[in-house]
Design brief:
The chain has 243 residues and is α+β, with helices and mostly antiparallel strands. 27% of the residues lie in helices and 33% in strands. The protein has two domains: 191 residues, BirA Bifunctional Protein, domain 2; 43 residues, SH3 type barrels (Roll), CATH 2.30.30. Strands 1-2-3-7-6-5-4 form a seven-stranded mixed beta sheet, sandwiched between helices. It has a five-stranded antiparallel beta sheet with strand order 11-10-9-8-12, with no helix packed on it. The structure holds biotin (BTN). Biotin binds next to α1, β3, β6 and β7.
Length: 243
């Protein structure tokens, strides 16, 4: 497996997209000790300092149609949870679509970026950030009460290399399930780790909000919510708050 390592880069997702455009191999991994312009979902910034976490991106070239992209993201979240569980013995939860949750706080996140034609995927960059060795005072004011790290939970310094290996191994397993289009197995694994399903959620869209019960995941990866106005909606993207 090819792993490209940096001390510093703007964003591993940016570099991964660059080498994907230049034709790098399926499964190439880009990891950096720190990132100067790491991006989170919905245009947010992502703190990524040296030694504090695992910041990496995987370039995938799945032979799949673009409608599988949400399932690829769910699969990545499952791989992260299984990798952490394997190496660290801690079972995290997943908040839809792909926040990694420990003790009700955010341990990690995934930013998936897609390049596709109408009929097929060119490449997918799966960017994964996991908070590892921060202590309580490391986080900025905005995320202080929402974020956590493996060290805060275990009280120990955690090996980032072992964790990366564990996650990449988990990823290989679930990626081969993915390539066989066995999407229901991925949805079932994801659902087993979910902290969203069965809960009341608030869905925040651009111009509206809905409150409802998160029921299940549709076959294309959307979240099925029975809203308080009686309408069942399938949510493709956006922010949800679990209440
Ligand atoms: C989120 O908002 O929850 C997603 C965060 C994703 C952060 C990772 S760190 C490695 C990769 N490079 C980036 O710029 N972002 C992702």
């Amino acid at each position: 497996k090819e792993i490209i390592h940096f001390e510093e880069i703007d964003s591993t997702n940016n570099y991964a997209k660059k080498i994907a455009n230049e034709g790098c191999r399926d499964g190439t991994v880009v990891v950096s000790e720190r990132q100067t312009m790491a991006r989170g979902r919905v245009g947010r910034q992502w703190e990524s300092f040296t030694n504090e976490g695992l910041w990496f991106s995987i370039v995938l070239r799945p032979d799949l149609e673009p409608e599988y992209i949400k399932i690829v993201t769910l699969a990545a979240a499952v791989a992260v949870v299984e990798g952490i569980s394997e190496v660290q013995g801690i079972v995290c939860g997943i908040k839809w679509p792909n926040d990694i949750i420990l003790n009700g706080r955010k341990l990690g996140g995934i930013l998936t970026e897609l390049s596709a034609e109408p009929e097929h995927i060119n490449y997918v960059v799966v960017g994964i950030g996991i908070n590892i060795n921060q202590d309580k005072n490391s986080f900025n004011a905005e995320i202080k009460n929402k974020a956590t790290s493996l060290r805060i939970h275990t009280g120990e310094t955690v090996s980032r290399v072992r964790l990366l290996e564990g996650i990449l191994t988990g990823f290989d397993r679930i990626y081969s399930i993915m390539l066989q289009r066995r999407t229901q197995e991925i949805i079932d694994s994801w659902s087993g780790y979910s902290v969203t399903l069965g809960k009341e959620v608030k869905i925040v869209l651009k111009n509206t909000e809905y409150i409802g019960l998160a029921q299940s995941i549709a076959s294309d990866g959307r979240l099925i919510v029975k809203c308080n106005d009686g309408v069942i909606r399938e949510i493709a993207a956006g922010e949800i708050q679990v209440r």
